[in-house]
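Review form for a predicted model. The reviewer records the input and the model, then writes brief findings.
Reviewer: anonymous (R2)
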Amino acid sequence: MKENIANIVKYNFWDGNSPETGFQRSAYLERILKFSGSKLIRVLVGQRRAGKSFILRQIIKNLVESGIHGSHTLYINKEFVEYDFITNYKQLAEFVQLYRTEMKLGGKLYLFLDEVQHIEGWERTVDSFAQDFAEQYELYITGSNSELLAGELASLLSGRYVSFEISPFSYGEYCHFHAYEQNRGSFLEYIQSGALPDLFQLKDVDSRRLYMAAVKDTILLRDIIYRYSIKDARLLEDIFAYLVNSVSNLTSVSNLINYFGSKNRRVNYETIAHYIHYLETAFLVHRSERYQIKGKEILSGTCKYYINDLSFRNYLYSGYGYDLGFLLENAVYLQLKVEGYQVYTGALRNGEIDFVAVKGDHTLYLQIAVTVMDQQVYDREFGAFKTIDDNYEKFVVTLDEIRFPSFKGIKHLRAWELSEILK
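Model under review:
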């Protein structure tokens, strides 16, 4: 295995080598590095191409700049063919021990395992290293499937890890990357484009469309079809297209059964439910449960789905009947989620509130509209809160340039200013 060390030098921060780290995502770095020095395993999960690998390398760079010798960091990325010699947990353990021996390392080794799900039984070695009291390790791992936490880690590493969901660029990151001011124009560009980092290097629509098709196909194939032995790949993609097209609409498995039935396609409840779940585990879509505001409980049955990045709609399914309202609502949902809120669809006896956002003991109500310049629309959106008699903050979020005054305690918020109330 000694020759394998030489083959991966280019990916590691050894002997002054400095691999590409990309745009620094400071918010994630700050959250993750708070746990530096602890025995907890740091787990980064999220959709493919959202930037997990870059963040890992940014963490390594930060450690080296803080005084950790580069040789005490080891980066293993199972997406690269140079790491094909590691296929299972035993080979992983053997290689790490060989590295320690060859580098004559004493003290702590900072181990970074990228797309760890491709190593069979990886959790056994990670668990062993995490508990090793003879040799010190600080562990960082990434994966592109949420069941990395719900399955393997939850059963074996319970209580010994902390997780971070990595999302595509937020609006603030988008503006920082492009050196834009935060205003209506840049926000419209953001929601009508997409937030996957690699998109920013592609200048024309055709190139972006091809790139997004490749991202979508890779996620469906590698993170769902192979992992779960999917038999009907076409149905899986058609369900994804349906959910993209149904953003902000109440959806149920029965809705999809009826939809495919109208097209003379026979599908069953269990298959549809499983396929939707798989799309969620791959971070392609997110579920917003209905929350009964009066009873303070989750309602089963219908829910809403939001896509993880608007580029799927903008470049792959743009022929659907979207307007700015759908894009705005999806973008607000994602911003709330990035800021750590649990997001629900508020259910009232005779209507709904677009979002009930909960973070600890902090709760917000948000109603989303492109504009409230029309008096009838203004009355409808601000009036949506009239039957809610608690004291939680209430906002109407729009794309209007004009900032409207508060009305009966309900505040108007321009979409590009949303982050100001979420800190």
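Findings: The two ends are 48 Å apart (CA to CA).
Further findings: DSSP finds 15 helices and twelve strands in the chain.
Recommendation: see findings above.
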